Amino acid sequence: MKKKKNEHEIDLKSWFFKFKTKWYLFAISATLALAAAYVYVKTSPRIYAFQSTLLLGDQQTGSKKAQELLEVLDVQSRGIKVEDEVSLLQSAEMVKQALRNLDFTVSYYKVTDHWLNNISELVVEEQYETAPYEVDLDTTSNQLVDVPIYVRPIDEQTYEIRMEAENVPLYDFGTHATVESLPVVKMTKRLKYGEAYKDKYMSFTLNRNKEEDLARGREYYFVINSLNSQVKQQQAALEVAPWDREARVLVFKSQGTIPDKQVAFLNTLMAEYVANDLKEKNQNGLKTLEFIDGQLATLSDSLRQSKQQLSAFRSNNRIANINVQSNISYEKLSQLEAEKAKLTTDRSYYANILDQVQNGNGIAQSVSPTVSGIQSPLLNNLFLQLAELNQQKAGYQENATQDNPIFRKLDGQIASTRSAIEANIQNLIQSSDISIKNLDRRIAEIEATLASLPENERKLMDLQSESQFIDKKYDFLLEKRSEAAIALATNATDKKIVDHASMVGNGPVNKKPKMIYLLALMIGLAIPAGFIVLMNSADTTVQGKEDLGNITNIPFLGVVAHGTRKDKLAVLNNQRSAIAESFRSIRINLQYLMADNSFKVIGVTSSISGEGKTFCSVNLSSEMALSGKRVVLIESDMRKPTFSKYFPVSETSGLSSYLTQGQPLDEIIQKSPVENLDIIPCGFIPENALHLLESPKMQELVNELKERYDFVVIDTPPIGFVSEYFVLMRHMDVNLYVVKHKYTDRNLLTQINELHASRKVKNLYMIINDVNYNKTYEYGYKRKAHYYYA
């Protein structure tokens, strides 16, 4: 099978011709596309682009004084990440803070006076600070949000309000939350300007703006926006990014339909961010002061203790002059040892008393501390209280049970008093232990002093050094506290608005009518072009001579022009027609190709029915007869005879009667309206046409006709349906295979290609039938020859 020389080569002229033949598709598509572009330009809101810049400053938060102080105190500082700041600026909470400072709760719209609005509300204009009326919203009441509420002026004092929607949120502006969702809301009411409207779903007052024109009969509407819907809208339009990879300058980009509204939002967002930064830094300054105050409180205690220790060291060691210390050391040593002995005896007594109290031996109820040798007024009072409580309890035991409230109260008081006595005695024991330890230390110190008097002098110097260090550190923190307080009072943010918001360019970014119309035109032309290309790719029928040459190696003989159903015998009825000229060309080409061969029998077939096989055989035979040749045309398709559409033939006498009944040849040959052309029709339809055609009588018929006529033309059945053609091939000198332009499928040529490749068919030629020159690029040049035809 022949292939294209270059399968990727595109024949632009051929495609232009195909597009030209479908010019009406391009016209319709382009018109619709331009109409859609017009509607888009008129109905879509104008969207403008805005930009502003903000400097993050250095990577430190808080005041510089506070940062320096934290560095001195060895506290790790906290830096800024640009990505974190970008996320913060785009966060819902940051956008909410900005929106709370702006009056975007109610959006106003006007349905303009445009012819498109006669179809639907397509051309709508948002009004910001130019609306002819103002809605005073009662935010303490619930409101229906995010749905249009229509306003139609009636006269100078009256207007009509109308709303009809489904799944409407009922919103609480106090908590900024949806209370419920109403499945259907339908409302119509007339009110006067300035008259409050209130029901369980809405509460507002509509005031007329006298500075703006409120056209009567014109339709307006407003939308009460929930905070969440505003946040989503602004977040979707907001983009924050660093100027470049290493910069700390942030670029804010946003889009919106109202320039003043979007500029106000961007400026407010940046202002809120800067204000929050200053607030955070002030909080850091306050935390710094709290930290210093805590350190000062700790150092104050340490300083007081160090001074007390120094004073106590001097006092305890009675160091006024280290040289005279040795003179009194021995006297002190004997006194201290006597004191230690007394304290040891007292402590043993305290421990004994405590053991008796804790073990419940009764001494706590009867022993008085004074009598027992304990000189403590507090402990003495506690023993007296315990004794009195025990007496009261003993008095109640005779008449009251254990469940008596008074009895339980006395038990509680007794237990509390015993606990106080135990704690007091433990304190005395701990005090004795401390005193004993103190005496031990003092005795050891005196002994050490006696052993080495210079050691006291060294300890005294250590205590003095420690006291001086704490004193200097305390003074340092006092100084830094004063600096931090001054820095807090003069604190300022290091974030700065570089460029306030402004509009980018001089017009909307989404509406460029010339570009939109051009794009629409290109789309309008591309759609039919793509459709034609797609249909051409999906079309598997034979498109012309070149296409036929790509799918078969069978020689090409000629084309037959397109005609009407009236052109059955075109070569006879209109010899100057394009069809008649086509058959003349085929006859001449056939005679030229077979000039060196003596051919008599010509077979005409096709793939399937409807390709014009019989039409070609009839007109080719007529053309050969008109050229002066004696021609006989045999209708061998005895399954579906069609000669009756071309000639007045007998249906009882024909090829079938000759082959089955032995009817004489002269009786089956019939004259035609064409001079020199005789025909042998099918006759009656036999039961088995194949057996008749392969009988010896068929060979006899062909041989006898070859003697009588110059040419024998056999109209055979199509090879795609029946097998009669393969029986008749042996009788034919020339085989003509008819394919119909844009009708015959390429795949149907597989069988004839195989026959030709195996050389089972001799002298095989292809004819393309029904070619419309006006719709075929390959033969488009023949359109100019129409004046040669009648």
Short overview:
This protein is an alpha/beta fold and 790 residues long.
What is the residue-averaged pLDDT? 80
Beta-strand share of residues: 15-25%
Shape, principal axes of CA atoms: elongated
Number of strands: 22
CATH architecture of the largest domain: 3-Layer(aba) Sandwich
* Helix proportion: 40-55%
The class by helix and strand makeup works out as: alpha/beta
Report Rg: 59 Å
Q: What's the story with the biggest beta sheet?
A: 8 strands, mixed
Summed up, the helix count is: 24
What is the domain total for the residues?
Answer: 4
- Oligomeric category: single chain
The CATH class label of the largest domain is Alpha Beta
The CATH superfamily of the largest domain is identified as: P-loop containing nucleotide triphosphate hydrolases
Q: Order of strands side by side in the largest beta sheet?
A: 15-22-21-16-20-17-19-18
Give start-end ranges of low-pLDDT stretches. 1-5, 59-63, 70-78, 362-372
CATH topology of the largest domain: Rossmann fold
Please give the alpha-carbon distance between the first and last residues.
40 Å
EC number: 2.7.10.2
Transmembrane segments: 21-41, 515-535
Pfam family, one: AAA_31
Keywords: ATP-binding, Cell inner membrane, Cell membrane, Kinase, Membrane, Nucleotide-binding, Transferase, Transmembrane, Transmembrane helix, Tyrosine-protein kinase
Structural commentary:
- The chain is 48% helix and 18% strand.
- With 790 residues, it is an alpha/beta fold.
- The protein has an eight-stranded mixed beta sheet with strand order 15-22-21-16-20-17-19-18, sandwiched between helices.
- α17 crosses α18.
- The protein starts with 11 loop residues before the first helix and ends in a 19-residue tail after the last strand.
- The chain crosses the membrane at residues 21-41, 515-535.
- Belongs to the CpsD/CapB family. Belongs to the etk/wzc family.
